[in-house]
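Sequence in, structure out. Go.
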Amino acid sequence: MENKVSKELLRFNRSAATASMTVKWSDLNLEGAATARDLWSKTNLGSFDASSTVSVPSHGVVMLKVVVQKLNCKKYLKLNMLG
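Output:
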């Protein structure tokens, strides 16, 4: 049985120019290689080791789904016990 973990996130760009924005898996409490999908354009962005960079249009939004095999349990438990 595979234990996949997924997280969805939005990247907002408030600037007047297109921006490259990087998402680190560690910031999402995820470990290892992951696949990323743009949910609004319905396109697979590929497989990435530790992070992914997306281009977000001026005053635009990108919604991503990130799927990995492993959750960083120690960090996850620590954050949830604090809040």
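Check: The two ends are 31 Å apart (CA to CA). The CA atoms of residues 76 and 82 lie 10 Å apart.
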